[in-house]
């Protein structure tokens, strides 16, 4: 997932925020969709994952809810996912503690100029690229033998163990969710999971959004859809910011404190021949409070070819996407230029 750089790393946004003053021009968002003073709230369906793990009498009802959610807004709030509230709080705490350290401590884990992995912020790929008002810690967590532990913070002390435990749990949930997605369309339950692969990658990204002096002009993350099959987002417990585009309108995504927000990524949209929607989303900032989230992107094995499941290609619904291997290799160049990577595989 290496990118081509045109200039070295930019300053941590946390430093810009604490220095005060007008933010640099490069952060001003120029998109035609703009940033309105207020937005409507999205009704995001809440799906009980425990119904998929056992032969629950409610399974059919939850599968219907799941299908409707991911074929309309492209996301759902997953509850009863098997993780305790205190464990999710710990995951948030280790991230918040890390970002609260002085810059020198965080910079022990800085990403290299030509890499995405580690502590840092936007890779600058072109001179007119708009920058996001966020700092990040980006780590490959699976397969385990690809972890670069030197980029995993040693402080706070529990950081590595907590993140490891989370990834073990998410690996199990990913299989459960991909199988439920298939069952919700009356397909053989492995049809998405087989394309995903046993050795798929997972990338964790802690996103830290300092208060921003110009939330009317600057975004925390610019509009994009994910290049994953699915993404798990642990939201900040108190501060909203995520928005999803639905029917050409931006909506705020509400916080359900101990739910995981799961969204469809481009690769599940491709595998489902467009039945499931990989939603465009973005993050707005605010001038009062910092916000932190943890996104985990679940990416199919790079050397497995993915493509629309044959049963979903019909006369009424012709094949919408070509088959492709290693979709993420297309991702960054297109993303930073404001283009949708999925458009490059549309037929
Ligand atoms: O922080 C959020 O709410 C969303 C983050 C996100 O979209 C991303 O990390 O790609």
Give structural notes.
The chain is α+β, with helices and mostly antiparallel strands and 347 residues long. Helices cover 25% and strands 19% of the residues. It contains 9 helices and 12 strands. The protein has an 8-stranded mixed beta sheet with strand order 1-2-10-7-12-5-4-3. Helix 3 crosses helix 6 (159-184) and helix 4 (85-100) crosses helix 6. It is globular. The model is unreliable at 1-6 (pLDDT under 50). Residues 198-300 form the Fe2OG dioxygenase domain. It comes from Escallonia rubra. Belongs to the iron/ascorbate-dependent oxidoreductase family.
Helix content: 25-40%
Record field, number of beta strands: 12
The H/E string reads HEHHEHHEEHHEEEEEEHEEH
State the end-to-end CA separation: 25 Å
Largest sheet: 8 strands, mixed
Q: Give the overall form.
A: globular
- Say which molecules are bound, naming each kind only once: 2-oxoglutaric acid
Give the oligomeric state of the chains in this entry, treating copies of one chain as homo and distinct chains as hetero.
Answer: single chain
SS class: alpha+beta
- Given as residue ranges, the uncertain stretches (5+ residues, pLDDT < 50) are 1-6
């Amino acid at each position: 997932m290496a990118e081509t750089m045109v200039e070295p790393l930019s300053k941590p946004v946390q430093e810009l925020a604490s220095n005060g003053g007008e933010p640099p021009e490069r952060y001003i968002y120029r998109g035609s969709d703009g940033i309105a003073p207020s937005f409507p709230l999205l009704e995001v369906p809440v799906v009980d994952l425990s119904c998929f793990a056992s032969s629950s009498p409610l399974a059919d009802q939850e599968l219907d809810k799941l299908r409707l959610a991911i074929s309309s807004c492209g996301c759902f709030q997953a509850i009863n996912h098997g993780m305790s509230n205190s464990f999710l709080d710990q995951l948030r705490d280790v991230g918040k503690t890390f970002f609260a350290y002085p810059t020198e401590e965080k910079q022990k884990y800085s990403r290299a100029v030509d890499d995405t992995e580690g502590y840092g912020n936007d890779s600058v790929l072109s001179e007119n690229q708009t920058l996001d008002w966020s700092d990040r810690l980006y780590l490959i967590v699976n397969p385990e033998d690809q972890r670069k532990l030197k980029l995993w913070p040693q402080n706070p002390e529990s950081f590595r163990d907590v993140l490891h435990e989370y990834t073990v749990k998410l690996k199990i949930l990913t299989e459960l969710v991909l199988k439920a997605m298939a069952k919700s369309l009356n397909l053989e339950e492995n049809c998405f999971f087989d394309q995903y692969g046993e050795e798929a990658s997972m990338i964790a990204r802690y996103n830290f959004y300092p208060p921003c002096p110009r939330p009317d002009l600057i975004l925390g993350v610019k509009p994009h859809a994910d290049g994953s099959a699915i993404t798990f987002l642990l939201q900040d417990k108190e501060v909203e910011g995520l928005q999803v585009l639905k029917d050409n309108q931006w909506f705020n995504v509400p916080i359900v404190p101990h739910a995981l927000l799961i969204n469809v990524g481009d690769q599940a949209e491709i595998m489902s021949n467009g039945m499931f929607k990989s939603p465009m989303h973005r993050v707005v900032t605010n001038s009062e409070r910092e916000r932190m989230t943890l996104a985990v992107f679940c990416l199919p094995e790079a050397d497995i070819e993915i493509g629309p499941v044959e049963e979903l290609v019909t006369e009424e619904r012709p094949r919408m996407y070509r088959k492709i291997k290693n979709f993420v290799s297309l991702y960054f160049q297109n993303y930073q230029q404001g283009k949708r990577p999925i458009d490059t595989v549309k037929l």
